[in-house]
Design brief:
With about 150 residues, the chain is an all-alpha fold. It holds the Pfam family HTH_Tnp_Tc5. Keywords: DNA-binding.
Length: about 150
Amino acid sequence: MAENAPEKRKAILIGTKVDIIRDIRMGMKNVDAAKKYSLSNSTVALTNLSGGEKQRKRVREATYKELEDALLKWFLDARQKNIPISGLVLLKIAGDLAFFLRHENFKPRGRWLQFFKEHHGIVYRAVVGEAAAVNEDAGNDWLSADISAVL
């Protein structure tokens, strides 16, 4: 691999940013701080200029947190009962929950579902084993049950 190949972008821990700012305010030069923390000069300079702003660039909060919490609770309850759940079922339940929670602007879409799954670490896998053998009628009854119990 070439020596001049660009390094991958890495997030700097908040504690490291605080240390950089402290070192520079105590008289350390940006170049020396960059060497100490194995960062580029521009990264250290920007960290110093921002003054350790309390913003995160890669973590987004949920727009409909109440809805996501309710959907996650529903999902975990369904998983505990070994009921197979597809993405379409999650979108349908999310739409129903949004209606009950009066989120008129919420439209369940695939992109939102992808973000929800990534945020909560949900991965679709086949539920196997005798414990996972669920009567299909019982699953349908459970899916059509009153959703207000989740809220």
